[in-house]
Amino acid sequence: MAAHRRGWIIGGALAVLLVAVLAVVLPRTKAMPVKDIEVRGAQQLSTEEVAAATGIAPGTPMGAVDTHAAAVSVAGLPWVETVTVSRGWPSTITVDIAEHTAVAFFTGGDGAHLINADGDEFAVDDPPPGAVEITGDAARGASGDSGGSSDSGGSVLRDAVEVAASLSEPAREAVKSLEARSPHTFVLHLADGATVVWGASEDNANKALALDTVLQREGSEFNISNPGQITVR
Question: What residue stretches are annotated with the POTRA domain (predicted)?
Answer without folding.
Answer: 32-100
